Amino acid sequence: MRPYTYAAARSVGEALERAGDGSAYLAGGTTLVDLMKLEVVSPAHVVDITAVPLRGIRRGPRGLFIGAMERMADVAGHHLVAEPYPVVAEALRQSASPQIRNMATIGGNLLQRTRCGYFRDPATPCNRREPGSGCPAVDGHNRSHAILGTSDACVATHPSDLAVALTALDARLSLRGAGGERTLRLADFYRLPGGTPHLENELRPGELITGVTVPALPWARRSTYVKVRDRRSYEFALCSAAVAVHVKGGVIREARVAAGGVGTRPWRLPAVEEALRGRPMRTETFEAAVAHAADGARPLARNAFKPALLRRTIVRALVHLAG
């Protein structure tokens, strides 16, 4: 780990004042500290925001608000989350390990960096780490890599389970920086890699995520998160599906579907949603609706199984919701 300076902030304003070029915010530290130890990132200045009052889980006219400094474990078990939005609680409970969930924050989870082995190894080239150096994953070990939203410059998957669930529910981020406050749809927050994979999101220099708002969707009680991985704990998704449906009279009136483990960002699937609307809630409907789930996919040598796995994972989630 390289030398750095440290400061602690007790308010958002103080945090913004102490941040600058080459600085990083420290919350739970479950991602940042690891990357600093590996020297994948080497901020010159670290601003500790653990004492900044960005907490709270409350329901309001716009929906459910979750403060950015809330711990993952606390959010997963909260009655305003687990009952009205089970897809969010399930995504959190299937993330990382119990120890990490007790430390990691909601804001930090949404900003975690890819788990691509090439990105996390400073001895190898990586366009996300060093723009223009290349992407060895394209022709290398790419079983866990993305098939949707990729480019010749990067094929790394987005790691957050929570972000998939929140994307399906059309959640919005509250952001605060030197220029004031703003809100942004989570689906618009993450960038496709294109030719600039080192620019991962729309966060401005020194800006903080202060909270997340999930729209009021009474029917989101019928939702679930299915995660396919190589082991049951502390493993990232090969494929996942966040699904919520509104069913009336046995017919799907509304559907939200997003996928993880297959895209360079959480991947919303509007074509699948449209194919479900107005159709009966049964297996034949599900199997027909997922036919176009992997449209536009670019499988690599070692992950050509992912388009079929994506379709099966979505069907599995829908069958679960059908009971």
Task: Give a quick set of tags describing it.
5-stranded antiparallel β-sheet; 4-stranded antiparallel β-sheet; Enolase-like, domain 1; Uridine Diphospho-n-acetylenolpyruvylglucosamine Reductase, domain 2
SSE string, helices as H and strands as E? EHEHEEEHHHHHHEEHEEEEEHHH
CATH-derived topology of the domain at 219-322: Enolase-like, domain 1
Largest sheet: 5 strands, antiparallel
Distance between the termini: 51 Å
Side-by-side strand order of the widest sheet: 4-5-8-6-7
Number of helical segments?
12
Global shape: globular
Radius of gyration from the CA trace? 19 Å
User: What percent strand?
Assistant: 15-25%
Q: Structural class of the helices, strands and pairings?
A: alpha+beta
Estimate the helix proportion, in percent: 25-40%
Mean pLDDT: 97
Task: Kindly describe this structure.
GO terms for molecular function: FAD binding; oxidoreductase activity. Keywords: Oxidoreductase. The chain has 323 residues and is of the alpha+beta class. It has twelve helices and twelve strands. Among the domains are: 1-53, 2-Layer Sandwich (Uridine Diphospho-n-acetylenolpyruvylglucosamine Reductase, domain 2); 219-322, CO dehydrogenase flavoprotein, C-terminal domain (Enolase-like, domain 1, 2-Layer Sandwich), CATH 3.30.390. The protein is globular and about 60 Å long. Strands 4-5-8-6-7 form a five-stranded antiparallel sheet. The chain has a four-stranded antiparallel sheet with strand order 9-10-11-12, with helices on both faces. A three-stranded parallel sheet has the order 1-3-2, with no helix packed on it.
